[in-house]
Design goal:
Its EC number is 1.11.1.-. The chain is α+β, with helices and mostly antiparallel strands. The protein has eleven helices and nine strands. The chain has one domain. Strand 7 and strand 8 form a beta hairpin.
Amino acid sequence: MSENTTEEQGAAPSRRKVIGWGGAGLALGAAAAGGAVALTRDGDHTAPVADSGGAVPFHGPHQAGIATAVQDRLHFASFDVKTKDRDELIQLLKDWTRAAERMTAGAEVGEGAYGGLPEAPPDDTGEALGLKPSRLTLTIGFGPSLFDGRFGLKDKRPGALVELPKFPGDNLDPARSGGDICVQACADDPQVAVHAIRNLARIGFGKVAVRWSQLGFGKTSSTTPDAQTPRNLFGFKDGTRNIAGTETDRLAKHVWVSGKDAEGAAAWMDGGSYLVARRIRMNVETWDRTPLSEQEDIFGRDKKEGAPVGKAKEHDEPFLKAMKPDSHVRLAHPDSNNGATILRRGYSFTDGTDGLGRLDAGLFFLAYMKDVRTGFIPVQTSLAKNDALNEYTQHVGSALFAVPPGVRDKDDWWGRALFA
Ligand SMILES: C=CC1=C(C)c2cc3[nH]c(cc4nc(cc5[nH]c(cc1n2)c(C)c5CCC(=O)O)C(CCC(=O)O)=C4C)c(C)c3C=C
Ligand SMILES: [Fe+2]
């Protein structure tokens, strides 16, 4: 990775260059460009650390943060693009890519958090100094509104990037929905995830503005078959029958865009995916007054083991007809939806109380798929109409994004094929 990315593209010279520190950053840049090489964030910009601290490779055919083993924490941000200048947007995506390369490798943004010109604000905000990469992944997506004509992208809008229909029971807040660009930051350390979004927002100042954001904890899905399945805020194991990050065949079939799905307007999506984000409020107080047997009927699984009705073990094959017709698992199962299969990657959230003495808590549902028209939409259409769980949940935010393929190398950048 070049040390002077911004400078080469015509922006102001870097502070380190001005004061003659160019060599140190080159070592860092070269290491970061190589992928999962962890770097110190303690101000010694030159030294790769021996313990990787869990750096996830940034470069590859697919973006990290989809099939990657789910990290503990989430900071998700949806941005509105404020600039009307296509070239300025392209430059921002390049700058974001270079910053993302560094942060996912555990390095500071740009010239770092200190040591530069005292007259200028530091490039990095500093709160991640001394923290490990913590398996940080940064995943970008482009919303339908980005293709409205402002940036000459109308004829690049894929057919799969539809407006989601209004489902029965939806109570969507526009201030928590939509957005031109999203960035999903996942990490095992919340401060690392928050630092990443904050620094991207800072780089984008004047060009993009955060429309809404969501913090998440307690992953509600597993993409690692051998790991213990996490529990959601209703106390049930969640993610039992998810697609595992190691199941390359199922990922190719249900998650990655390829073949005929990557033709015409969607050619730039080859290797990408589609992301549905739903903020789902969970009425935990009502749930906590619900008898155990009713809770188990609602999901179609038992609370302790997570086994499907009539079976003993969590990973036993569900027998759908043994479940109540309105049970969540029966309705969401691929066999009830023409084979529709999605990769779930959601997180729990609590955002204080709602003014009525109830927790503002729920599931920030994230799901990746090859095509929402054959994935999320049929499943949610069925759930919204019939799911017994609806008595305890409400969808209050919604967004859909086209997630481009991965950044191949240090010369590539987020969205290059889209803007080509
Ligand atoms: C449209 C897709 C889905 C929404 C929205 C959704 C909301 C939601 N789910 C739970 C809890 C559980 N879901 C479980 C399984 C499950 N859920 C979906 C889809 C949506 N869920 C699918 C496709 C599946 C798998 C079905 C199958 O193949 O058997 C489970 C059971 C354990 C598991 O397999 O993961 C739980 C528990 C909540 C609380 C919720 C909204 C708040
Ligand atoms: Fe579910």
